[in-house]
């Protein structure tokens, strides 16, 4: 990944509050912000549970459509 693209991603994460930065001289340091990351993780866990349930239902439906072999 090119440095400008990487910097753009970091800027977006900082804007969302998931990271924070500090500048010391010519060096910029980034730090993870645990609380917003935990909020995002909670959302992803909930979404995974929803999609696992939906995919299980789809699998049950598709398996119920199979024609038995004679």
In short, what is this structure?
The protein has helices at residues 3-15, 34-65; strands at residues 19-24, 27-32. With 70 residues, the protein is α+β, with helices and mostly antiparallel strands.
What is the succession of H and E elements?
HEEH
| Helix/strand class | alpha+beta
| Average of pLDDT | 92
Count of structural domains:
2
Beta strands, count: 2
Low-confidence spans: none
Strand content: 15-25%
Instruction: Report the major sheet.
Output: 2 strands, antiparallel
**End-to-end separation:** 56 Å
Q: For the largest sheet, list the strands in their spatial order.
A: 1-2
Explain this structure.
- With 70 residues, this protein is an alpha+beta fold.
- It has 2 domains: 1-32, no CATH class; 34-70.
- Helices cover 64% and strands 17% of the residues.
- It has a two-stranded antiparallel ribbon.
- Strand 1 (19-24) and strand 2 (27-32) form a beta hairpin.
- The chain starts with a helix and ends in a 5-residue tail after the last helix.
- The mean pLDDT is 92.
């Amino acid at each position: 990944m090119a440095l400008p693209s990487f910097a753009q991603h970091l800027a977006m994460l900082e804007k969302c509050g998931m990271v924070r930065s500090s500048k010391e001289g010519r060096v910029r340091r980034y730090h993870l912000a645990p609380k917003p990351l935990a909020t995002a993780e909670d959302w992803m866990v909930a979404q995974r549970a929803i999609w696992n349930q939906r995919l299980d239902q789809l699998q049950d439906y598709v398996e119920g459509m199979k024609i038995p072999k004679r």
